[in-house]
Amino acid sequence: MAVYTEIGDDELDDLLHQYDIGRALSCKGIAEGVENSNYLLHTTGGYFILTLYEKRVNPADLPFFLGLMDHLAGRQVPCPTPIHGRDGAALRAVAGRPAAIIAFAEGRALTKPGPDHCQRLGAALAELHLAGSDFTRERPNALSVGGWRPLFEASRARADEVAPGLAAELEGELAALEAGWPGGLPEGVIHADLFPDNVLFLDGRINAFIDFYFACNDAFAYDLAICLNAWCFEKDGSFNATKARKLMAGYQGVRPLEAAEMAALPLLARGAAIRFLLTRLYDWLNQIEGALVKPKNPLEYLAKLRFHRDAGGPGAYGLDA
Amino acid sequence: MAVYTEIGDDELDDLLHQYDIGRALSCKGIAEGVENSNYLLHTTGGYFILTLYEKRVNPADLPFFLGLMDHLAGRQVPCPTPIHGRDGAALRAVAGRPAAIIAFAEGRALTKPGPDHCQRLGAALAELHLAGSDFTRERPNALSVGGWRPLFEASRARADEVAPGLAAELEGELAALEAGWPGGLPEGVIHADLFPDNVLFLDGRINAFIDFYFACNDAFAYDLAICLNAWCFEKDGSFNATKARKLMAGYQGVRPLEAAEMAALPLLARGAAIRFLLTRLYDWLNQIEGALVKPKNPLEYLAKLRFHRDAGGPGAYGLDA
């Protein structure tokens, strides 16, 4: 959590009066999610996550996020459902912040996902992509290629504090990605932040995708490229081709990739790496005092970026082109 | 939490194999407790708190803390029960740290406790004191008068960074408290950290005292003096005599104070104020990067300390001497 908002006793009671989920038995702040304040709320009606949206989330985007979760849950994509109040609305305000109550999703985020988990992830991701096809709201991806340069400019002057030469390397990368970024690939709603933290497994199966607060419209293959980065590198930085093949096989079993998507994968993965490198770099250089979650080291993604830059094609990932 | 330890998937499964509480459905880090890493653990057997004891807790003290919780729970003092494994032990190790699983206690810590809550607190505190009388383990209070000077010395050189003149003021206070600290008061097991954070209310009643990791043997009236500090000042620093009277009435309804305890209260309250001032000062000056909980402002307790120093006797608290 970036910030941790305290909820007063009366505020919580007032909030619950707007719902049909009973009265509060306990409400504990949980150390989950980098962007928002999250509470595990137990009421006489069950277990829920109460999320207060902090300043990084644009309130205007919340109807997209909550509507998407409703939409996907209605199509059997494993994701928690926003709870609607007596007035029908899922979005309201607590402690001066936009807030929503979401059904609690069981399951554990894996610290060491294996190849079979990657295969299940691939299949479920393809199902998410298909299920989103008739979702009518749209949200452009602010963190795609057009958004990287402003983010870079905000960190450029101090980038070399993190690694000598980083500013120059990123400048070169950005220029290459801006020049070569693929267009015309199949698009739709993507999760755009599908790290192991955001996938809850139960008995080896995916029980819930969570944290839809980067979801947007973009190329499906870019979502897959984010997963290649987040799931297929080992802690020592090595790329696990077995996991990548399983991830792809799971995905293609549900939604086969077009040739153009497969060919674009190395560049998309390189873009995904710079996207997380840039946000981590910014967070690293602008640490929030008292933040509940320590910023992640941006250099992990510099190593991934270099791997993708040096990859000649899908074959470098152990994938058949 | 001072530090937040990540628990691996296998480590959690291995841990649960040592208990009869089923298998893990979810395990979420919670933003509670300054000293340890706490997780809300849901298993097929119910809800639990899994605590990993971080470096501030002396492992040698854990049998005292866990044994005390067992003892008190067995005497109907509202407190969560440590879960014993198949081998009978409540204390074991996870991720290289001592760890215990504790029954989950419902209830909400109040952000704005009122006079009636203070009365219930007083009564329950007296019951805790009586129930501890036949607990056989002992733990001296390392944070009583003898422990304050070393703590002060660790912060003295930088104390004036927090408030000009603070080092000199604390030096004078310490000398006065060391010279006049009362002895011979009725003693026993005290909680020693009974802030509103550590008392869970449900339907206006106390459902659980939690966080026994400062519990020790000391004067009962010192525990009450800690509560006077923690429950009877308003956020603007003013002392609420109504709350103090209710707290005392609740306590004395169960365990009447001796005349010497009543007479010692202002000095005990002054000591309790410097105890929390000193630990907060140390934590303020030695912030841990990435800590999950921001250190509390020590100056809140400087104001309280001054209030107690200027109090002529119990009458200054609205109490009848």
From TrEMBL, chains A, B:
- Which domain of life does the UniProt lineage start with? Bacteria
Looking up CDD domains in the UniProt record yields: HomoserineK_II
Q: Enumerate the Gene Ontology biological process terms.
A: threonine biosynthetic process
Sorted keywords for this record are: Amino-acid biosynthesis, ATP-binding, Kinase, Nucleotide-binding, Threonine biosynthesis, Transferase
A GO molecular function for this record?
Answer: ATP binding
- Record pathway: Amino-acid biosynthesis; L-threonine biosynthesis; L-threonine from L-aspartate: step 4/5
Among Pfam families, the record links this protein to: APH
Q: What is its EC number?
A: 2.7.1.39
In this protein, which residues make up the domain named Aminoglycoside phosphotransferase?
27-257
What reaction(s) does this enzyme catalyze?
Answer: L-homoserine + ATP = O-phospho-L-homoserine + ADP + H(+)
Database matches in PANTHER family: AMINOGLYCOSIDE PHOSPHOTRANSFERASE DOMAIN-CONTAINING PROTEIN, AMINOGLYCOSIDE PHOSPHOTRANSFERASE DOMAIN-CONTAINING PROTEIN-RELATED
Q: HAMAP family under this entry?
A: Homoser_kinase_2 (MF_00301)
Protein family according to the UniProt entry? Belongs to the pseudomonas-type ThrB family.
Quote the protein name from its UniProt record. Answer: Homoserine kinase
